[in-house]
Design goal:
about 260 residues; mainly alpha; Arc Repressor Mutant, subunit A; Four Helix Bundle (Hemerythrin (Met), subunit A); three-stranded antiparallel β-sheet
């Protein structure tokens, strides 16, 4: 073997370059890919921290940090106790909600901003839901409204149903991006007005939702768009009055400005 050949062989790397990602990032990526690739549903129990560590031949601290990242990203959540464990979550909107929350805390996001966005995207969401909703989507909304109708004297139950109605509409649109946005917006609005509980208001809002659902089942896209705008303006006006009366009590970390235009 001549000198030139020896020189060329010497320059060939013996090992592949190490992955620059830290171990916990690689573990987080593997778990996330498994969840998405296998379509694991919310509530599915994943292997324990010890099992994951043994399977991947890494320390428990590495797995723990990977799980922390996935929890923040909304892919998993951990429960403690006898029935505890690591479970698949579907709260992919959490990072967006956290961003909104940070901007709200610094006063850069107001209630007006949130309602302005709702006025822009929800008419589109509901039109898409009217066109693309599957039987399963329609059944979920019908069951929600039927159950809510059994608790017309319970303002808290009605409030939860009225909120879930909008989230189910976003799911029915068939566009996961719209669903994530709606969940994020709803999270922040719920935090702002968590003490806002008016029985008459919730009953009237429930009535609007029944009209919207009827229009959806009849495929009346123009009507549903008008109804959802009326819905948003109705909520905006009542929340504005609530804030101006000083009835709202923000949590310590909340400094979201409540100026709402009508």
């Amino acid at each position: 073997m001549d000198f030139e050949k020896e020189k060329n062989l010497a320059t060939i790397p013996t090992f592949q370059p190490l992955d620059k990602k830290r171990y916990f990032e690689q573990v987080a990526q593997l778990i996330r890919e498994k969840i998405l690739r296998e379509g694991l549903q919310e509530g599915f129990r994943l292997p324990s921290e010890v099992q994951i560590a043994n399977e991947l031949n890494v320390s428990r601290s590495v797995v723990r940090e990977a799980l922390r990242i996935l929890d923040v990203m909304g892919y998993i959540h951990a429960k403690k106790g006898p029935q505890g464990g690591i479970f698949v979550s579907s709260h992919y909107h959490k990072p967006i909600s956290d961003s909104f929350r940070s901007l709200a805390a610094s006063g850069q996001v107001t209630v007006d901003h949130l309602f302005d966005v709702r006025m822009q995207i929800e008419p589109f969401i509901i039109e898409e839901a009217t066109i693309h909703a599957k039987n399963d989507d329609i059944n979920k909304i019908a069951i929600l409204l039927e159950n809510a109708a059994l608790h017309m004297d319970d303002a808290a139950q009605l409030k939860r149903a009225n909120i879930d109605f909008h989230l189910l509409l976003a799911e029915a649109s068939g566009n996961p991006v719209l669903s994530i946005l709606m969940k994020s917006l709803t999270d922040i609005l719920m935090e702002i007005a968590y003490t806002f509980l008016d029985h008459d208001f919730e009953k009237r809002l429930f009535g609007i939702h029944k009209k919207i659902f009827r229009a959806i089942t009849e495929k009346k896209t123009k009507e549903v768009s008008k109804l959802i705008k009326a819905d948003i303006l109705f909520v905006r006006k009542n929340l504005k009055n609530y804030v101006e009366r000083g009835d709202i009590h923000l949590q310590p970390e909340q400094t979201l400005k409540g100026s709402t235009r009508v």
